[in-house]
Protein backbone atom coordinates (compact mmCIF):
# COMPACT_ATOMS: atom_id res chain seq x y z
CA UNK A 1 0.00 0.00 0.00
CA UNK A 2 1.33 3.45 -0.88
CA UNK A 3 2.00 5.75 2.04
CA UNK A 4 1.23 9.45 1.62
CA UNK A 5 2.00 12.41 3.88
CA UNK A 6 -0.28 15.46 3.63
CA UNK A 7 0.84 18.64 5.35
CA UNK A 8 -2.11 20.93 6.00
CA UNK A 9 -4.25 17.80 5.74
CA UNK A 10 -6.78 19.02 8.32
CA UNK A 11 -7.63 22.01 6.13
CA UNK A 12 -10.26 22.43 3.44
CA UNK A 13 -8.46 20.87 0.45
CA UNK A 14 -6.12 18.61 2.44
CA UNK A 15 -8.95 16.96 4.39
CA UNK A 16 -10.93 16.24 1.20
CA UNK A 17 -7.78 14.76 -0.34
CA UNK A 18 -7.06 12.67 2.79
CA UNK A 19 -10.63 11.33 2.77
CA UNK A 20 -10.42 10.31 -0.90
CA UNK A 21 -6.97 8.75 -0.59
CA UNK A 22 -8.18 6.75 2.42
CA UNK A 23 -11.22 5.53 0.48
CA UNK A 24 -8.89 4.54 -2.36
CA UNK A 25 -6.82 2.38 0.01
CA UNK A 26 -3.76 4.58 0.59
CA UNK A 27 -2.02 4.71 3.96
CA UNK A 28 -2.34 8.40 4.91
CA UNK A 29 -0.51 10.53 7.46
CA UNK A 30 -1.87 14.03 8.08
CA UNK A 31 0.48 16.62 9.52
CA UNK A 32 -1.19 19.86 10.62
CA UNK A 33 -0.86 22.35 13.47
CA UNK A 34 -4.68 22.76 13.57
CA UNK A 35 -4.41 26.51 13.11
CA UNK A 36 -7.79 26.36 11.33
CA UNK A 37 -9.32 23.53 13.37
CA UNK A 38 -9.81 20.04 12.02
CA UNK A 39 -11.99 19.43 8.94
CA UNK A 40 -11.31 15.68 8.78
CA UNK A 41 -14.37 13.54 9.44
CA UNK A 42 -14.40 11.00 12.29
CA UNK A 43 -14.24 7.97 10.00
CA UNK A 44 -11.11 9.30 8.25
CA UNK A 45 -9.52 10.23 11.60
CA UNK A 46 -9.88 6.56 12.63
CA UNK A 47 -8.10 5.39 9.48
CA UNK A 48 -5.14 7.75 9.23
CA UNK A 49 -2.12 8.64 11.31
CA UNK A 50 -2.59 12.18 12.58
CA UNK A 51 0.36 14.28 13.74
CA UNK A 52 -0.24 17.67 15.31
CA UNK A 53 2.77 19.71 14.31
CA UNK A 54 4.10 22.80 12.63
CA UNK A 55 5.84 22.50 9.24
CA UNK A 56 8.56 24.72 10.68
CA UNK A 57 9.42 21.89 13.15
CA UNK A 58 11.88 19.86 11.06
CA UNK A 59 12.46 17.02 13.52
CA UNK A 60 8.77 16.16 13.90
CA UNK A 61 8.04 16.60 10.21
CA UNK A 62 10.99 14.43 9.25
CA UNK A 63 9.87 11.66 11.63
CA UNK A 64 6.35 11.82 10.23
CA UNK A 65 7.66 11.43 6.67
CA UNK A 66 9.42 8.12 7.32
CA UNK A 67 8.36 5.36 4.92
CA UNK A 68 6.27 7.68 2.71
CA UNK A 69 6.14 7.44 -1.09
CA UNK A 70 4.85 10.96 -1.73
CA UNK A 71 4.24 14.24 0.09
CA UNK A 72 1.39 16.63 -0.61
CA UNK A 73 2.58 19.91 0.88
CA UNK A 74 -0.56 21.98 1.51
CA UNK A 75 0.13 23.64 4.90
CA UNK A 76 -0.06 27.40 4.51
CA UNK A 77 -1.40 30.62 5.90
CA UNK A 78 -4.10 31.95 3.60
CA UNK A 79 -7.04 34.28 3.36
CA UNK A 80 -6.63 37.75 1.83
CA UNK A 81 -7.05 39.70 5.08
CA UNK A 82 -4.97 37.29 7.18
CA UNK A 83 -2.09 37.36 4.70
CA UNK A 84 -2.23 41.15 4.44
CA UNK A 85 -1.99 41.40 8.25
CA UNK A 86 0.73 38.71 8.60
CA UNK A 87 3.05 38.91 5.59
CA UNK A 88 6.20 37.77 7.40
CA UNK A 89 4.64 34.71 9.01
CA UNK A 90 2.95 33.84 5.73
CA UNK A 91 6.33 33.82 3.97
CA UNK A 92 8.03 31.97 6.85
CA UNK A 93 5.51 29.14 6.82
CA UNK A 94 5.90 28.87 3.04
CA UNK A 95 9.67 29.05 2.78
CA UNK A 96 10.69 27.20 5.96
CA UNK A 97 7.89 24.67 5.41
CA UNK A 98 9.05 23.96 1.85
CA UNK A 99 12.69 23.67 2.87
CA UNK A 100 11.74 21.19 5.62
CA UNK A 101 9.53 19.15 3.28
CA UNK A 102 12.36 19.05 0.73
CA UNK A 103 14.92 17.94 3.34
CA UNK A 104 12.55 15.32 4.75
CA UNK A 105 12.07 13.98 1.21
CA UNK A 106 15.86 13.82 0.67
CA UNK A 107 16.53 12.21 4.06
CA UNK A 108 13.78 9.59 3.65
CA UNK A 109 14.31 8.81 -0.04
CA UNK A 110 10.85 10.16 -1.00
CA UNK A 111 10.73 10.79 -4.73
CA UNK A 112 7.49 12.78 -5.15
CA UNK A 113 6.40 16.18 -3.82
CA UNK A 114 3.11 17.81 -4.84
CA UNK A 115 2.90 21.39 -3.71
CA UNK A 116 -0.15 23.67 -3.43
CA UNK A 117 0.75 26.80 -5.36
CA UNK A 118 -1.85 29.36 -6.43
CA UNK A 119 -3.40 31.10 -9.42
CA UNK A 120 -2.72 34.27 -7.36
CA UNK A 121 0.80 34.30 -8.79
CA UNK A 122 -0.64 35.35 -12.18
CA UNK A 123 -1.57 38.71 -10.62
CA UNK A 124 -2.53 41.07 -13.42
CA UNK A 125 -1.27 38.76 -16.18
CA UNK A 126 -4.65 37.12 -16.60
CA UNK A 127 -6.39 39.95 -18.36
CA UNK A 128 -7.10 38.91 -21.91
CA UNK A 129 -7.38 35.16 -22.09
CA UNK A 130 -7.36 31.97 -20.02
CA UNK A 131 -3.84 31.84 -18.62
CA UNK A 132 -1.64 28.87 -19.24
CA UNK A 133 1.46 27.87 -17.30
CA UNK A 134 3.82 29.54 -19.81
CA UNK A 135 2.62 33.11 -19.27
CA UNK A 136 4.92 35.46 -17.34
CA UNK A 137 3.69 35.56 -13.77
CA UNK A 138 3.07 38.66 -11.73
CA UNK A 139 2.98 37.80 -8.01
CA UNK A 140 2.07 40.82 -5.88
CA UNK A 141 1.39 39.64 -2.33
CA UNK A 142 3.78 38.07 0.18
CA UNK A 143 1.73 34.89 -0.23
CA UNK A 144 1.99 34.82 -4.04
CA UNK A 145 5.70 35.71 -4.00
CA UNK A 146 6.46 32.87 -1.57
CA UNK A 147 4.43 30.45 -3.67
CA UNK A 148 6.44 31.38 -6.78
CA UNK A 149 9.71 31.11 -4.83
CA UNK A 150 8.72 27.57 -3.82
CA UNK A 151 7.88 26.61 -7.40
CA UNK A 152 11.42 27.62 -8.41
CA UNK A 153 12.85 25.84 -5.35
CA UNK A 154 11.13 22.62 -6.47
CA UNK A 155 12.56 22.96 -9.98
CA UNK A 156 16.05 23.29 -8.49
CA UNK A 157 15.41 20.33 -6.18
CA UNK A 158 14.62 18.19 -9.19
CA UNK A 159 17.79 19.32 -11.01
CA UNK A 160 20.01 18.79 -7.99
CA UNK A 161 18.45 15.82 -6.18
CA UNK A 162 16.22 14.14 -8.77
CA UNK A 163 13.05 14.55 -6.71
CA UNK A 164 9.95 14.64 -8.91
CA UNK A 165 7.62 17.50 -8.16
CA UNK A 166 4.44 19.16 -9.23
CA UNK A 167 3.30 22.68 -8.39
CA UNK A 168 -0.49 22.76 -8.42
CA UNK A 169 -1.79 26.22 -9.29
CA UNK A 170 -5.26 26.06 -7.75
CA UNK A 171 -7.92 28.44 -9.03
CA UNK A 172 -10.47 29.45 -6.36
CA UNK A 173 -11.32 26.06 -4.97
CA UNK A 174 -14.78 25.87 -3.33
CA UNK A 175 -16.88 23.17 -1.70
CA UNK A 176 -18.37 21.91 1.56
CA UNK A 177 -16.39 22.53 4.77
CA UNK A 178 -14.63 25.62 3.41
CA UNK A 179 -14.65 28.40 5.99
CA UNK A 180 -15.64 32.02 5.61
CA UNK A 181 -12.19 33.39 4.88
CA UNK A 182 -13.30 32.69 1.30
CA UNK A 183 -16.07 34.29 -0.72
CA UNK A 184 -18.30 31.27 -1.45
CA UNK A 185 -18.93 30.21 2.19
CA UNK A 186 -19.21 33.88 3.19
CA UNK A 187 -22.02 34.44 0.68
CA UNK A 188 -23.73 31.19 1.76
CA UNK A 189 -23.63 32.29 5.41
CA UNK A 190 -25.14 35.67 4.56
CA UNK A 191 -27.78 34.18 2.24
CA UNK A 192 -28.86 31.52 4.74
CA UNK A 193 -29.26 34.17 7.44
CA UNK A 194 -31.21 36.41 5.01
CA UNK A 195 -28.61 39.10 5.70
CA UNK A 196 -27.21 41.35 2.92
CA UNK A 197 -24.77 39.55 0.62
CA UNK A 198 -21.84 41.94 0.58
CA UNK A 199 -19.92 42.18 -2.68
CA UNK A 200 -16.64 44.12 -2.77
CA UNK A 201 -16.47 46.84 -5.44
CA UNK A 202 -18.63 46.54 -8.53
CA UNK A 203 -18.76 42.75 -8.45
CA UNK A 204 -17.61 42.73 -12.08
CA UNK A 205 -14.26 41.16 -11.10
CA UNK A 206 -14.08 37.57 -12.35
CA UNK A 207 -12.64 34.36 -10.94
CA UNK A 208 -12.47 30.75 -12.06
CA UNK A 209 -14.21 28.63 -9.39
CA UNK A 210 -13.06 25.01 -9.24
CA UNK A 211 -15.06 22.43 -7.31
CA UNK A 212 -13.27 20.52 -4.52
CA UNK A 213 -14.00 17.01 -5.90
CA UNK A 214 -12.50 17.98 -9.27
CA UNK A 215 -9.48 19.49 -7.51
CA UNK A 216 -8.88 16.33 -5.47
CA UNK A 217 -9.30 14.12 -8.54
CA UNK A 218 -6.73 16.25 -10.43
CA UNK A 219 -4.25 16.00 -7.54
CA UNK A 220 -4.48 12.21 -7.38
CA UNK A 221 -4.20 11.78 -11.15
CA UNK A 222 -1.12 13.99 -11.19
CA UNK A 223 0.45 12.03 -8.34
CA UNK A 224 -0.02 8.86 -10.37
CA UNK A 225 1.32 10.39 -13.60
CA UNK A 226 4.06 12.79 -12.47
CA UNK A 227 7.62 12.72 -13.74
CA UNK A 228 10.31 15.42 -13.60
CA UNK A 229 9.27 18.87 -12.45
CA UNK A 230 6.18 20.62 -13.73
CA UNK A 231 3.56 23.24 -13.00
CA UNK A 232 -0.14 22.59 -13.62
CA UNK A 233 -3.15 24.84 -13.49
CA UNK A 234 -6.09 23.20 -11.75
CA UNK A 235 -8.79 25.41 -13.20
CA UNK A 236 -12.40 25.02 -14.20
CA UNK A 237 -11.85 27.14 -17.34
CA UNK A 238 -15.00 29.14 -16.70
CA UNK A 239 -14.89 32.81 -15.92
CA UNK A 240 -17.64 34.09 -13.63
CA UNK A 241 -18.06 37.45 -11.93
CA UNK A 242 -18.57 37.87 -8.19
CA UNK A 243 -21.89 39.66 -8.74
CA UNK A 244 -23.23 36.57 -10.55
CA UNK A 245 -21.85 34.32 -7.82
CA UNK A 246 -23.93 36.29 -5.30
CA UNK A 247 -27.04 35.87 -7.49
CA UNK A 248 -26.45 32.11 -7.88
CA UNK A 249 -26.04 31.63 -4.14
CA UNK A 250 -29.14 33.72 -3.41
CA UNK A 251 -31.09 31.51 -5.86
CA UNK A 252 -29.69 28.18 -4.64
CA UNK A 253 -30.54 29.05 -1.03
CA UNK A 254 -33.90 30.63 -1.95
CA UNK A 255 -32.84 33.58 0.16
CA UNK A 256 -34.46 36.99 0.65
CA UNK A 257 -31.04 38.62 1.05
CA UNK A 258 -30.33 41.87 -0.70
CA UNK A 259 -27.10 42.01 -2.73
CA UNK A 260 -25.12 45.06 -1.64
CA UNK A 261 -21.90 46.57 -2.97
CA UNK A 262 -19.29 47.87 -0.56
CA UNK A 263 -15.85 49.33 -1.03
CA UNK A 264 -13.07 46.77 -0.64
CA UNK A 265 -10.63 47.50 2.20
CA UNK A 266 -7.41 48.98 0.79
CA UNK A 267 -5.33 46.01 1.95
CA UNK A 268 -7.31 43.64 -0.30
CA UNK A 269 -4.88 43.97 -3.19
CA UNK A 270 -6.23 40.76 -4.64
CA UNK A 271 -9.54 42.35 -5.51
CA UNK A 272 -7.74 44.78 -7.75
CA UNK A 273 -7.23 41.89 -10.14
CA UNK A 274 -10.15 42.33 -12.51
CA UNK A 275 -10.07 39.01 -14.32
CA UNK A 276 -8.80 35.55 -13.65
CA UNK A 277 -9.45 32.40 -15.62
CA UNK A 278 -7.16 29.46 -16.20
CA UNK A 279 -6.50 26.91 -18.90
CA UNK A 280 -6.34 23.27 -17.79
CA UNK A 281 -5.14 21.97 -21.15
CA UNK A 282 -1.78 20.89 -19.74
CA UNK A 283 -3.52 18.93 -16.95
CA UNK A 284 -5.72 17.27 -19.56
CA UNK A 285 -2.70 16.27 -21.69
CA UNK A 286 -0.99 14.72 -18.67
CA UNK A 287 -3.97 12.94 -17.12
CA UNK A 288 -6.79 12.85 -19.68
CA UNK A 289 -8.94 14.84 -17.27
CA UNK A 290 -9.80 18.42 -16.44
CA UNK A 291 -12.26 19.87 -13.91
CA UNK A 292 -15.81 19.77 -15.22
CA UNK A 293 -18.30 20.64 -12.45
CA UNK A 294 -20.36 23.69 -13.41
CA UNK A 295 -20.54 26.42 -10.77
CA UNK A 296 -24.33 26.05 -10.30
CA UNK A 297 -23.94 22.28 -9.77
CA UNK A 298 -21.14 22.78 -7.26
CA UNK A 299 -23.18 25.34 -5.33
CA UNK A 300 -26.18 22.95 -5.25
CA UNK A 301 -23.91 20.22 -3.87
CA UNK A 302 -22.73 22.53 -1.08
CA UNK A 303 -26.28 23.58 -0.20
CA UNK A 304 -27.31 19.91 0.19
CA UNK A 305 -24.78 19.38 2.99
CA UNK A 306 -24.70 22.65 4.90
N1 LIG B 1 -8.62 27.26 -1.28
C1 LIG B 1 -8.18 27.78 -2.41
O1 LIG B 1 -8.96 28.26 -3.24
C2 LIG B 1 -6.71 27.78 -2.73
C3 LIG B 1 -6.30 28.46 -3.90
C4 LIG B 1 -4.95 28.46 -4.21
C5 LIG B 1 -4.04 27.80 -3.41
N2 LIG B 1 -4.46 27.16 -2.29
C6 LIG B 1 -3.45 26.46 -1.47
O2 LIG B 1 -3.91 25.17 -1.16
C7 LIG B 1 -3.45 24.77 0.14
C8 LIG B 1 -4.64 24.34 0.98
O3 LIG B 1 -5.56 25.43 1.10
P1 LIG B 1 -6.93 25.31 1.88
O4 LIG B 1 -7.93 26.09 1.15
O5 LIG B 1 -7.18 23.89 2.23
O6 LIG B 1 -6.57 26.15 3.20
P2 LIG B 1 -6.80 25.81 4.75
O7 LIG B 1 -6.44 27.03 5.51
O8 LIG B 1 -8.16 25.24 4.94
O9 LIG B 1 -5.73 24.66 5.01
C9 LIG B 1 -4.40 24.94 5.33
C10 LIG B 1 -4.02 24.02 6.49
O10 LIG B 1 -2.67 24.30 6.83
C11 LIG B 1 -2.56 24.26 8.26
N3 LIG B 1 -1.40 25.05 8.64
C12 LIG B 1 -1.26 26.41 8.56
N4 LIG B 1 -0.04 26.75 9.00
C13 LIG B 1 0.58 25.60 9.36
C14 LIG B 1 1.86 25.31 9.88
N5 LIG B 1 2.76 26.29 10.15
N6 LIG B 1 2.19 24.03 10.13
C15 LIG B 1 1.30 23.03 9.88
N7 LIG B 1 0.06 23.24 9.40
C16 LIG B 1 -0.28 24.52 9.14
C17 LIG B 1 -3.88 24.83 8.76
O11 LIG B 1 -4.17 24.42 10.09
C18 LIG B 1 -4.87 24.27 7.74
O12 LIG B 1 -5.43 23.06 8.20
C19 LIG B 1 -2.68 25.97 0.69
O13 LIG B 1 -1.32 25.77 0.47
C20 LIG B 1 -3.20 27.14 -0.14
O14 LIG B 1 -2.25 28.16 -0.20
C21 LIG B 1 -5.78 27.14 -1.93
Give a written overview of the molecule:
This protein is 41% helix and 18% strand. With 306 residues, it is α/β, with parallel strands linked by helices. The chain has 2 domains: 3-174 and 210-237 and 278-287, Rossmann fold (3-Layer(aba) Sandwich); 183-206 and 239-276 and 295-305, UDP-galactose 4-epimerase, domain 1 (Alpha-Beta Complex), CATH 3.90.25.10. Strands 3-2-1-4-5-6-11 form a 7-stranded parallel beta sheet, sandwiched between helices. The protein has a two-stranded parallel sheet with strand order 7-10. Helix 1 (12-23) packs across helix 8 (212-225), helix 3 crosses helix 5 (87-108) and helix 7 (183-192) crosses helix 9. It is globular and about 55 Å long. It binds nicotinamide-adenine-dinucleotide. The site of nicotinamide-adenine-dinucleotide (NAD) has 26 residues, from helix 1 and strand 5.
CATH class of the largest domain: Alpha Beta
Domains (count): 2
Multimerization state = single chain
End-to-end distance:
34 Å
Low-pLDDT stretches: none
The pLDDT mean sits at 95
Look at the helices and sheets and give the structural class: alpha/beta
How many beta strands in the DSSP annotation? Answer: 13
CATH superfamily of the largest domain: NAD(P)-binding Rossmann-like Domain
Bound molecules: nicotinamide-adenine-dinucleotide
